[in-house]
């Protein structure tokens, strides 16, 4: 190695040391300069910065993980089969989660959107950070969950897109992924509508009219989640334990794995294994309220991985921002007691609290 190469390598090591030795510099590098946790990996860190070391009680340890059972895997080859409807309505009552295969979204589209996420996060930082303060409040590039307020940061970068209209997306979404994101949203629309129809059937809702549709999917949001490989995965977390605020969330995993669900009313965590071509569906807080607690919104989390970069693509279905939500009238028509109070769904406040 030449003298100049030695000098550059030494300078680089000094730069890394200065960043990692100061909490404010780590925060500035990751959050304000837009490098994200991927940027920390790119400069070759060998140990986890202290901001990312989770309290022991927040870690998902092997003592509370079970692999002997898993959430239902439902074959949706025939959406009109009563068995499919029965499975889709029962899974949210016991698990809050299920996976569907043979759902109709082509494998090529699923693979393409995952490749798009890798491509987006491999863009230069200057390209990605344009969307830290986007001209549209419906576009956001960020890291962790809410780094300004969190005591411990999550090992995740993400890019969030609220779909208002195709015209708005054309104006504000990045050209590097706009086409693919819109294609994926449209490809999943039929699956979303079929699942919601079956779930509503389980609540005695015979028809999804315009008002009900606004409650169930008045607003759509798609996230590109990127989890870089972590130097100390046993100390960190990709996304901490939480429930979604959505009506339902439709999630595409890659083949790395790491999504865990807390089994209802226990302290046992179950891994949701990646299944080629499958979509993971989970119930959110809004639908638990609408179902009067028949369907469960349960805690889940994403662990960090020390060997691979991982991606996932959730689509969140939310009530329209001005919707008043409470137990659906069809749920209460047989005299069932109302367990949830009606409330105004102020989505613009809640969106900032969404982690998945």
TrEMBL record:
Name by which UniProt lists this protein: feruloyl-CoA 6-hydroxylase
Lineage: Eukaryota, Viridiplantae, Streptophyta, Embryophyta, Tracheophyta
EC number in record: 1.14.11.61
One record GO biological process: response to molecule of fungal origin
Pathways per UniProt: Phenylpropanoid metabolism
InterPro entries reported for this sequence: DIOX_N, IPNS-like_FE2OG_OXY, IPNS-like_sf, Oxoglu/Fe-dep_dioxygenase_dom
Cofactor(s) essential for the protein: L-ascorbate
PANTHER family: 1-AMINOCYCLOPROPANE-1-CARBOXYLATE OXIDASE HOMOLOG 1-LIKE (PTHR10209:SF542), OXIDOREDUCTASE, 2OG-FE II OXYGENASE FAMILY PROTEIN (PTHR10209)
Domain Fe2OG dioxygenase: 211-319
Reaction equation(s) it catalyzes: (E)-feruloyl-CoA + 2-oxoglutarate + O2 = (E)-6-hydroxyferuloyl-CoA + succinate + CO2
Enzyme class: oxidoreductase
Gene that specifies this protein: LOC101261369
